[in-house]
């Protein structure tokens, strides 16, 4: 069964460093997403991406964040200068954009900022 | 804007007990509704969904009915197992993205 894969599963970084989280969405999906879950809290929408551009972003997705689909298969989230409060689980998701609205999630990348 | 409200947890039950986790939503129109489950240390998995009013989604003994009159999508299971211990998220489809509730932790004791 096709699945969304994410790497790394866990990354530890120093405050102020750049981090890139990678995702391989399901191949025939058209919509790609990043969500964030701070430990024990709700799953928050960060950004959606369609047709090689951002279609929507939340207030959380400020200038420190960027997304890219560099090669037609990978979908990356970059945090330019990490802050302590960026520590969270980041989930990538993809969807077909059909009537059901169903999204398929990866297992997440845990980011720890020290 | 669109939003989802879930009952707060944790919910602690004994094995074979009946489960209800309440979920209500606010939305324009009639969005698709979902329950996702997150087992310890894992990502989000779709548990069930309903795409229109009066639809009943079901999977693994869990059920939820899309009630537009009460704007609800409560999750139920007749007899829970220890392996059902997880966090359950109610969600709705809003303009090609999902909006999640805050999640409800379920703990089932033997």
Structural write-up:
The complex is a heterodimer of chains A (114) and B (110). With 114 residues, chain A is mainly β. Chain A is 0% helix and 50% strand. Chain A is built from no helices and 11 strands. In chain A, strands 2, 4, 5, 6, 9, 10 and 11 form a 7-stranded mixed sheet that branches. In chain A, strand 7 and strand 8 form a beta hairpin. By secondary structure, chain B is mostly beta strands. In chain B, strands 2, 5, 6, 10, 11 and 12 form a 6-stranded mixed sheet that branches. The mean pLDDT of chain B is 94. The chains are: A mainly beta (114), B mainly beta (110). The interface between A and B is medium-sized, with 26 and 22 residues.
Instruction: Count the DSSP helices of chain B.
Output: 0
> What is the N-to-C succession of helices and strands of chain A?
EEEEEEEEEEE
- H/E topology pattern of chain B: EEEEEEEEEEEE
Look at the structure and give the mean pLDDT of chain B: 94
- State the separation between the terminal residues of chain A, measured CA to CA: 37 Å
Count the E strands of chain A: 11
Categorize the overall geometry of chain B: globular
Helix content of chain A: under 10%
Distance between the termini of chain B: 41 Å
The residue ranges of chain B in which pLDDT falls below 50 over 5 or more consecutive positions are none
As a whole number of angstroms, the C-alpha radius of gyration of chain A is 13 Å
% residues in beta strands of chain A: over 45%
Helix content of chain B: under 10%
Oligomeric description of these chains: heterodimer
Class by SSE composition of chain A: mainly beta
Kindly state the number of beta strands of chain B: 12
Strand content of chain B: over 45%
């Amino acid at each position: 069964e096709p699945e969304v894969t994410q790497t790394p599963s866990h990354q530890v970084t120093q405050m102020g460093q750049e981090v890139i989280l990678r995702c391989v969405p399901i191949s025939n999906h058209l919509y790609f997403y990043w969500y964030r879950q701070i430990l024990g809290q709700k799953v928050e929408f960060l950004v959606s991406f369609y047709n090689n551009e951002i279609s929507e972003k939340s207030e959380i997705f400020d200038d420190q964040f960027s997304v890219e689909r560099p090669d037609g298969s990978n979908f990356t989230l970059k945090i330019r200068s990490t802050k302590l409060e960026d520590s969270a689980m980041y989930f990538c998701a993809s969807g077909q954009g059909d009537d059901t609205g169903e999204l398929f999630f990866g297992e997440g990348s845990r980011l720890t900022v020290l | 804007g669109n939003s989802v409200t879930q009952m707060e947890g944790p919910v602690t039950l004994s094995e074979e007990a009946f489960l209800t986790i309440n979920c209500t939503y606010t939305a324009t129109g009639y969005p698709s509704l979902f329950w996702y489950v997150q087992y310890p240390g894992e990502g989000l998995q779709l548990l069930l969904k309903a795409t229109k009013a009066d639809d009943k989604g079901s999977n693994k003994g869990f059920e939820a009915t899309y009630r537009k009159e009460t704007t609800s999508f409560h999750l139920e299971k007749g007899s829970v197992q220890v392996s059902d211990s997880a966090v359950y998220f109610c969600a709705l489809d809003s303009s090609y993205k999902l909006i999640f509730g805050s999640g409800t932790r379920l703990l089932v004791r033997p």
